[in-house]
Design a protein that fits this description.
This protein has 440 residues and is mainly alpha-helical. It is 64% helix and 1% strand. It is globular and about 75 Å long.
Length: 440
């Protein structure tokens, strides 16, 4: 049996594959409208994923997937087990179901056959919202390297534009896409300034994957200037995690781009340290760094304690995907309750433990463990700077997930899917004029 030939548009130029066009359309939707988890935005992403899904299923021959992609697809399939109906007696005996059983009894209702997820609709919605992300992961890995490279450059260009937009938002107090709690700060295309900062930090570390690093290094000054602009955009968000991650990304990106000697690297590190100290002393940046003094009063600690208490109550099977908000409300301390409800644990690892129980904790561990395995693989293979750059973007998102929920937005989840799929990039042959861009 022979592989199917990729479909070409009638009358189109050679190489203009419908998969490339459909995937670019999906990415445009996710990056432009995926800055929030609102239902209309999520639905728009799902609809945009359908043409790409169709082309992947019927328009392409079988292609090998790297193990991170296979792992993600396998975990996604296992997550659907939460929707399998269970016998009434078994469901009622699950940890944490006492209040639900009592509510059914008060209404004169029988438990009936129910799935593990407390809210089956929310669980199904949460799982379906991941379809575009998985489609991006599989589709991006099947693109030609030059198309992958072009998409990475487009993402960086978008990041520069949104960094400038964020600076304007910060200085003028206008042009916000979403009227939310973070209005007044630099949010770019996001509803949350922390997510905007994470996007810019990822763009900084992705520069070595897109900038020329071979014999032609004339554009390196441009890449360095872009990195500085993006970091200024991070500062405009005043996001504490974003500033830490963005500063780390800036140092790593410059090291990968310039490839300095050990002495130059140490000298550059000293200069960056002095520059950071000078920034802390600058009056214009005082409001940015004042927020670091309020870490002790940060509500994230209260959220973490409450989320962990709820996770223990529902252990080992969890409360079900998408059930965080009502479950958190049931455990929330009345003395710390505010007028606004908590939409996420601000720690995705804890939220996975709460909603998924022991399986959720296993899923949470897969990200960091996979990152360590990939790091070992890159180290043994003496991978090019571009591969470390892609790896670094994934690590930034995983690290930020410990203090926020970046991967619950379509934009950042799609970005993680891209950097995971691009791990296969090093094994694909590049055209000669593109090879220098990947440091080969």
């Amino acid at each position: 049996m022979t592989d199917r030939v990729p479909i070409n548009l009638a009358g189109s130029k050679p190489g203009l594959d419908p998969l490339v066009l459909a995937l670019c359309g999906l990415l445009a939707v996710l990056f432009l409208f995926g800055g929030t988890a609102r239902a209309p935005n999520v639905l728009l992403g799902f609809i945009a994923a359908l043409p790409v899904l169709y082309l992947l299923l019927v328009g392409r021959g079988h292609q090998r997937m790297d193990w991170p992609t296979r792992l993600a697809l396998g975990l996604y399939g296992l997550a659907w087990l939460q929707l399998i109906p269970l016998p009434p007696a078994l469901w009622a005996a699950l940890p944490g179901r006492e209040l639900a059983v009592a509510a059914l009894d008060a209404g004169g209702l029988e438990p009936g056959w129910r799935p593990l997820a407390l809210d089956r609709g929310a669980a199904a919605g949460a799982l379906l919202s991941l379809v575009p992300i998985l489609v991006v992961m599989v589709g991006f890995a099947r693109l030609a390297p030059q198309h992958q490279h072009a998409i990475l450059r487009a993402i960086i260009l978008l990041a520069v534009l949104t960094a400038l937009l964020g600076i304007v938002q910060r200085t003028t107090g206008s042009l916000f896409l979403y009227d939310r709690d973070h209005a007044g700060f630099a949010t770019g295309l996001f509803a949350n300034r922390n997510h905007h900062a994470a996007f810019l930090a990822c763009a900084i570390i992705l520069l070595p994957a897109a900038a020329p690093t071979g014999p032609d290094r004339r554009l390196l000054p441009v890449a360095v200037a872009i990195a500085v602009i993006l970091f200024v955009g991070v500062l405009a968000t005043t996001s504490r995690a974003g500033i830490v991650l963005g500063g780390t990304a800036l140092a790593a990106s410059l090291a990968l781009l310039l490839r300095p000697s050990r002495m130059v690297l140490l000298g550059g590190g000293a200069i960056l340290t002095l520059a950071a100290f000078a920034m802390f002393q600058a009056p214009a940046l005082a409001p940015v760094f004042e927020r670091f003094g309020g870490l002790a009063q940060d509500q994230r600690m209260i959220m973490a304690q409450t989320s962990w208490a709820a996770a223990r109550e529902f252990f080992p099977w969890g409360s079900g995907w998408g059930s965080f908000v009502p479950v958190y409300m049931a455990f929330e301390d009345l003395d710390t309750m505010a007028g606004r409800y908590v939409v996420a644990a601000h720690n995705d690892y804890l939220q996975l433990a709460l909603e998924g129980g022991l399986p959720g904790m296993a899923i949470a561990l897969c990200g960091p463990v996979a990152a360590l395995v990939l790091a070992a693989r890159h180290w043994r293979a003496r991978a090019a700077p571009a591969m470390w750059s892609l790896w670094g973007a994934g690590v930034i998102l995983l690290a930020h997930s410990a203090v926020d929920y970046p991967l619950r937005t379509g934009s950042l989840a799609a970005l993680l899917a891209i950097v995971v799929a691009a791990q296969e990039m090093a094994r694909k042959p590049l055209p000669e004029h593109e090879g220098a861009a990947y440091g080969r």
